Amino acid sequence: MGSIREPIKKSSIAKKQKIIEKGFGLICDKGYHNVTCADIAKYASISTGSIYQYFENKKDIFKDGIKNYSKQILYPFIELTNTKLDLKNIDSVIENIIRKTIENHTVSKKSHEEIMAMVHQDDEVAEIFRNIELDITNRIVEYLDTKGLKLDNAKEKVHIMIGLIDNLSHEVVYHKHNNLNNEIMIHENVKLIRNILLG
Amino acid sequence: MGSIREPIKKSSIAKKQKIIEKGFGLICDKGYHNVTCADIAKYASISTGSIYQYFENKKDIFKDGIKNYSKQILYPFIELTNTKLDLKNIDSVIENIIRKTIENHTVSKKSHEEIMAMVHQDDEVAEIFRNIELDITNRIVEYLDTKGLKLDNAKEKVHIMIGLIDNLSHEVVYHKHNNLNNEIMIHENVKLIRNILLG
Amino acid sequence: MGSIREPIKKSSIAKKQKIIEKGFGLICDKGYHNVTCADIAKYASISTGSIYQYFENKKDIFKDGIKNYSKQILYPFIELTNTKLDLKNIDSVIENIIRKTIENHTVSKKSHEEIMAMVHQDDEVAEIFRNIELDITNRIVEYLDTKGLKLDNAKEKVHIMIGLIDNLSHEVVYHKHNNLNNEIMIHENVKLIRNILLG
Amino acid sequence: MGSIREPIKKSSIAKKQKIIEKGFGLICDKGYHNVTCADIAKYASISTGSIYQYFENKKDIFKDGIKNYSKQILYPFIELTNTKLDLKNIDSVIENIIRKTIENHTVSKKSHEEIMAMVHQDDEVAEIFRNIELDITNRIVEYLDTKGLKLDNAKEKVHIMIGLIDNLSHEVVYHKHNNLNNEIMIHENVKLIRNILLG
DNA sequence: TATGAATGAGTCTTCATTCAT
DNA sequence: AATGAATGAAGACTCATTCAT
Question: Which side of chain A, N or C, has fewer Cβ within a 10 Å radius?
Answer without folding.
Answer: N
